[in-house]
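Same chain as my last thread, 169 residues:
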Amino acid sequence: MSELPEYKFDHVFDAPRDMVWRAWTDPKLLSRWYGPGIETIIHAYDLKPGGAWLNEMKWGDKADYSKMAFQEVTPPEKLVWHHSSTDSDWNIAANPMMPDWPRTLLTTVLFEEQGAQTMVRLSQIPIDATDAEIACFAKMMAGMDNGWGSGYAVIDTVLAEMQGGEQGD
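reply #2:
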């Protein structure tokens, strides 16, 4: 397959960059918005190159596990990680709900100051993916804005609380 599909999602947050960075990198805040509408449990969060974020999303008797292996951490400008579906022991595995979903995505998040606001650009590209995984990712990209957009709406609430003097704890 030639060029890999790349998912991109831009959003401007009405908050300074350091505050938006904190919403992405403080596990207490991150667990509030990542996986909106379901229970998000962060089992580990080691924010450094070579560190990992182990994430479980639960709804009812179902759970989805993922591991984010940090490749680059440049506060407050850039996060890069390998985002992988895992089994409950954190071994990279096929996504049980979507077997052709890529096992690993290269995820890059850029934080750009725009006056008192912050523009966040998220991108994801399948890596080491089969043709079936690439095709699945390309097909599903159109619906990914809904998931990220729902999470970002929660970030907007978290940021408003933080700016109002609450720290989101």
